[in-house]
Amino acid sequence: MSPFLQLDIALVIIILAAKLGGYLSYRLGQPSVLGELIVGILLGPSALDVFHLPVFTDSHLAETIAHLAEVGVLLLMFIAGLGLHLDDLAKSRKVAALAGVLGVIFPMIFGAMTGMAFKMEIGAAIFIGLILSATSVSISAQTLMELKVLRSRVGVSLLGAAVFDDVLVVLGLSMFIAFSDPGAGRGWISIVWIIIRMALYVAGAIAVGFWLLPKASAVVDRLPISKSLIAFAFIVALLYAWFAEVAGSMAAITGAFLAGLMFSRSRVKERIESGITTLAYAVFVPIFFVNVGLSANARELTSQTALLFLVMAVVAIVGKVFGAGLGARLAGFPKLEALQLGTGMMSRGEVGLIVASVGILQGLIRQETFSAVVGVVIVTTLLTPPALRLLFSQRKPAELAGE
Questions:
Q1: Cα separation of 388 and 146, whole Å?
Q2: DSSP-assigned letter for residue 171
Q3: What phi and psi values does residue 249 have, to the nearest 5 degrees?
Q4: What sign results for the dihedral spanned by CA atoms 124, 128, 134, 136?
Q5: Which site in 20, 48, 103, 215 is 20 to 30 Å from 61, CA atoms measured?
Q6: What value does the mean pLDDT take over residues 23-31?
């Protein structure tokens, strides 16, 4: 079978299984994303290992699926940004800053203590703390959209806190790598340069969003080309994501979120949202959720790494929920909403895996530690949707941000 036909049937399996898993999860009273994640684990090497059957011989199949999944998470964060307004984020800046900063500090401390308890070198222990500080709110954003509370005070603050988290983790990772080199002077220069690049990217993204995108959208919308507006929005989302990582030293998902936020003030927002949502949820987003499960391999956890995995999972959950929740409390949130925000920050997702992958390449952590980190990512990702549904069923927060 040709590589294309292998991809063809793999996509059939992934999308069909994702939709069935999502439906069953919904019928059981859980967010559909939970079912899609579990389907990925069942299809992956932890259980059935479907894509290593003899029929799938293409060595690049998993990589291709992973790339399609990355498009899915970019579109998901673009849609999340599209559903908000800049005024919403501006009103929640205090709680976002406190929750984002404390949501990094506490997992960092707890993670480093965990590493030292397992007799790791000080550098490796601190790097474990850095891994556990990362947050990926794509899963939480999807769950909040399903619950129709993305624009609640908690939802808006959660997305704002994730931006602070992303900036701090990127800076922390850069500092760690820079000061691993003998030349500390060069290390400081590289950190300052990264901060400048971040500031320039955000300023440029906002400037383009305010002055260029509205005019460009109007021109593109008048072109005699089928679905030109949707294609334009898709291209802009990809470009914002690309520039975020390449030019701004930030995560690509942050760039996609900013792109959606810029389009949220457009007159053609509803049409863009309709078109992008159809494209995303029909194809790319299911691939992303299933691929999260496909990346897990429970068989790699030995008796030695199982204890490390269990302790890291507890530390990851407690550190993030307590840290981000404490930040929300200090900003004036009641206990329930602070707990909702902290729980929404719990998932590590692809951001945690990216940081851990850097650790492997730099020789900062060992392979068994990486396997434990993958397990932590899966556990926190699986727990987040049902936990959020349970917490939001207790009492519905303010319908709009700032109320």
A1: 11
A2: H
A3: 55, 30
A4: positive
A5: 20
A6: 88
Q: Is 9 left (phi over 0), alpha (psi -120 to 50) or beta?
A: alpha
Using alpha carbons, select from 358, 357, 344 the residue that is nearest to residue 388: 344
**Residue-wise pLDDT tens digits, 247-265:** 988 878 889 999 999 998 8
| Residue in the structure block whose two tokens are 């603050």 | 157
Q: Tokens for 220, please give them.
A: 């593109």
CB 154 within 8 A of CB 337: yes
b/e 158-174 (16+ beta carbons within 10 angstroms → b): bbbbbbbbbbbbbbbbb
CA–CA dist 188, 3 (Å, integer): 47
CA distance 378 to 293: 7
> Which among 354, 357, 364, 351 has a CA at the least distance from the CA of 177?
364
Q: pLDDT tens digits for 41-88?
A: 899 988 899 998 899 999 999 999 999 999 998 999 899 888 877 777
| Alpha-carbon distances of 48 from 10, 293, 299, 349, rounded to whole Å | 14, 12, 12, 22
What secondary structure, in 3-state letters, does 366-390 show?
A: CHHHHHHHHHHHHHHHHHHHHHHHH
Torsion on CA atoms 179, 182, 188, 189, rounded to nearest 10: -130
Write the class of the CATH domain 69-283+299-394: mainly alpha
Total residue length of the chain? 403
Give dist(CA 356, CA 369) in Å, integer.
9
Q: How are the residues of the chain apportioned to helix, strand and coil, as percentages rounded to the nearest 5? A: 80, 0, 20
Please report, as a single letter, which amino acid is at residue 51: F
Residue type, 68: L
> Which tokens belong to 199?
């500031």
The rounded distance, in Å, linking the Cα atoms of 266 and 216 is 11
Per-residue pLDDT reduced to its tens digit, 265-284: 888 899 999 999 999 999 99
Would you give the DSSP letter of residue 304? H
- d(C-alpha 187, C-alpha 218), whole Å: 45
Q: Which of 170, 157, 261 minimizes the C-alpha distance to 208?
A: 261
* Domain regions of the chain by residue span: 69-283+299-394
- Per the rule left: phi > 0, alpha: psi between -120 and 50, beta: everything else, 363 is left
Whole-number Å distance between alpha carbons of 395 and 110:
31
Dist CA 51 CA 67 (whole Å)? 16
